[in-house]
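Example record for the data management plan.
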Amino acid sequence: MNDDTFNMETRKYLKKVGISSQREIEHAVAKAVERGDLNGSETLQVSMRLTVPALAIDYHISGEIALE
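Corresponding structural encoding:
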C-alpha cells in the first residue's frame, strides 16, 4: 500500500462527500423555506452514515444544523 496515494484518495473522497452534502442540504433548505415548510429559524437534526463493506465499517454521525 502506498500511504501517500491512500491519503490523497481518502481526502478527495471526503471533499466530494462534503461538497455534495452541503449542496444538497442548502438546496433542500431553500426549497423548504420557499414552500413555507421552514421559517428559517429552525435547528435541523442531521445524520450521516459511512459504510465500507470490505472493511466491515458502518459508522453513524449525528448532529444539528442551526439555520439562524
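Summary line stored alongside the record: The first helix runs from residue 3 to 35.
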